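Hi U.,

Before I forget, here's the chain from the pilot set. I'm dumping it here mostly so it's searchable later in email.
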Amino acid sequence: MFKPDREQGFAKAALDLMGECNVISTPENFELFYAFVSGENPAITQIMGTAIAAKKVFTPELLQDLRMRCLSGARAALAMEAVGSNMGAMIDDVLAKLETASRDTVDYKNTLSAASGELGGERSPADLRKLVEGLIAATREMEQRTKSLEGELQASSEQVSELRDKLDNVRKESLTDPLTNIANRKAFDDAVRAAIEAVQHDGEAVTLLLCDIDHFKKFNDTWGHQTGDQVLRLVASCLSENTKGRDTAARYGGEEFAVLLRGSGLDAGAHVADQIRQTVETKKLVKKSTGDVLGTITISIGVAQFAPGETAETVIRRADACLYGAKHNGRNLVIHQNDPRMAALETSAA
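Structure:
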């Protein structure tokens, strides 16, 4: 469940492991080792677990390779750097073309002014013909240059559109959990900030669901991490199936998920939560090679509604208490903040 002391435990374990592996404590390295000890990134769990078991030395080159292969943030940063460099070069190129076009325009204007001055005196037909031919040639040359510039600017415009698409893809990748293909923790935090603003200033009803897969460790220990990954993907698809519009379904970390329901009060949120619970319950884990059913997946969900003026931490703590209530009352349950079972739980705890 969503416990600050658990995250602090992961942080301490990550730092201890970095010391054991003789890895310098930089923010970049800490991100890798935190992802490993928390189990939130299956690729890192597998690759680093193998390396640690083999007592492999974590060289700077290996650490950088791990970041690029397994951390979407690192890949996004590199992609942003590349796109930014390309964009800068393109802007310089366009400015150079516009500067050249400006000089061409000044030259053409000077040609016209000079011709206008020459027309002021008496000229022979031959001189006039030569003058007109010169103006026609200058006009054609200017027309050709203008067409060439239009073509070049059109090509630049297409390149800008392509870079814009790449930037959009980078942004989406940085906000998406690579395993489940739903929103990641960063995207969830952004959505919560926007939701708090809507509650505070617009009076919008917003409800938070905190979800935890029941007995997830058993799946991992019995069938391995690949089966555990399959469970995570199945649950994520159930969340996506039951959310829409401005709602946000996110992987919070490990086997924990969060759903932010915009425009939904507590009762509506609890109804959606139970739809999700029922959808997950229908999923059976099947071994592809034999067709054997490995087990049924269930989840427990805690539901809390945002109140004006309260912080995200307060809402998360209340929803987490409800999630604990669902676990305490037998799992595969939805419990919201006004559920009578919560009062009974608080009384027993006191």
